[in-house]
Amino acid sequence: MSDINPEFSAKKRKPSRNRHKSRELVLKAIYRCMMNNSDIKQVFLDMKDDPDYNKADESYFRVLLQGVFDQQETLDTQITTFIDRALAELSPIEHAILRVSSFELLFDMSIPYRVVINEGVELAKTFGGAEGHKYINGVLDKVAASARPQEFRK
To answer: Number of folded domains in the chain?
Structure first.
């Protein structure tokens, strides 16, 4: 599945478990890919220069980045079902947040849906527009209800 070679790690690091930082980095990487039509391998290499890279869970970063990149069409189809405008009318950062969070909701059942939604909202508060987090919350709530009906009803 992964096109990102784990041998890119030039130096050995003590593994970190900060998934929030991993999500932030994936958000930045997906945004960069969207804005520049960049190659995922180059974006991955560029992200290693981010000051937060050493704080992130590197293995989770790799899996999440590759997964979002590989599943873009599926994610956009899912997102389109629950937004009130054309996909092209979303701000690029909101679109990227929805892709990252929707990937976790659809493909990583080990993370509770409430955690995924909270992380998406936090990313929107940090990187999005003034009221964007409310929109992200509403859309992700609908994605969660569709993707995880049993968990959502509990």
So the answer is: 1
pLDDT at 4 over 50: no
The reply to whether 9 falls in a domain is no
Inter-residue contact 30 to 96 (CB < 8 Å): yes
Is residue 104, in this structure, part of any structural domain at all?
yes
What's the CATH number where 139 sits? 1.10.940.10
Rounded Cα distance between 97 and 127, Å, is 9
**For tokens 């859309």, what's the residue?**
139
Q: For residues 29 and 13, what is the distance between their CA atoms, to the nearest angstrom?
A: 21
Q: Is residue 8 part of a domain?
A: no
CA distance 39 to 143: 28
Residue 103, helix vs strand vs coil:
helix
Dump pLDDT digits (tens) for 70-99: 999 999 999 999 999 999 999 999 999 999
